[in-house]
Amino acid sequence: MSKVGRLVVLVSGSGTNLQALLDASADPSYGARVVAVGADREGIEGLVRASKAGIPTFVEKVDDYATRAEWDVAVAARISAYAPDLVVSAGFMKILGKPTLQAAPLLNTHPALLPSFPGAHGVRDALAHGVKVTGCTVMLADEGVDTGPIVAQEAVPVLPDDDEAVLHERIKTVERRLLVEIVGRMAREGWTVSGRSVRIGNHTGGEST
Ligand code: GAR
Questions:
Q1: Which CATH class is domain 1-104?
Q2: pLDDT at residue 204, as a whole number
Q3: Which residue has its alpha carbon closest to ligand 1 atom 8?
Q4: Largest CB tally within 10 Å, which of 60, 133, 171, 190?
């Protein structure tokens, strides 16, 4: 990454992970700063958080395009306009296609220990399965649903009286800290991908072998 990594963050909801990145990047030594926030819908708290921080925003809705492929091209163009070093999908509830994946490396965060419980309901599915431990995963995105190479994971206990909301909040407390740590380290130290193995450190950018 360049000296201070340029981040475009994508959101679909409350944007607490975005807020954690905004807060962290207030410190110049963090190594990365949010240069734009994109969303797939209007009227969400994530966009309000960006505006309050003075960060430019954009919205691209799937329904405004004849095909999903056209939407993908539009999202990629919006992202490319900010020349990011890294795109962070932080609660962005859409799968992004090739155009976006080619625009910049895409980091994703998911509220379960992948490869268990991928998709839009990772917390609900883990709870329904009766697992005693779940957690969060930070991974590089590929064209699949939560199938990309894993960068970091952390476990979170499931407690007997948990419902989806309570468990998700416990996960998100860990997830925000992990995402901030990983994005900062990737920005400061670089990273390499070898097959499914991601290694942070000793490199100046995201290189694949
Ligand atoms: C986060 O828990 C994130 O992992 C999840 O949405 C939440 C967004 O919270 N994403 C997914 O489930 C994607 N499959 P936030 O809007 O408060 O950052």
A1: alpha beta
A2: 52
A3: 91
A4: 171
| Continuous H helices in the chain | 16-24, 45-52, 68-80, 98-103, 122-129, 164-189
- Based on the residue annotation, tell me whether 110 is a catalytic residue of this protein: yes
CA of 21 to the centre of ligand 1 (A): 14
Domain 109-139+150-209 maps to which CATH number in 3.40.1830.10, 2.60.120.1690, 3.40.50.150, 3.40.50.170? 3.40.50.170
pLDDT at 78 (0 to 100): 98
Nearest residue to 145 (alpha-carbon basis) of 123, 119, 115: 119
Residue with CA nearest ligand 1 atom 10: 91
pLDDT, one tens digit per residue, over 18-39 is 999 999 999 999 999 999 999 9
Position of tokens 């360049």? Answer: 2
* pLDDT tens by residue, 58-82: 999 999 999 999 999 999 999 999 9
Task: Confirm whether pTM is higher than 0.85.
Answer: yes
Regarding the beta carbon of 133 and ligand 1, being less than 6 Å apart is answered: no
Q: Which residues in the chain show pLDDT less than 50?
A: 2
Give the residue range(s) of CATH 3.40.50.170 domains in the chain.
Answer: 1-104, 109-139+150-209
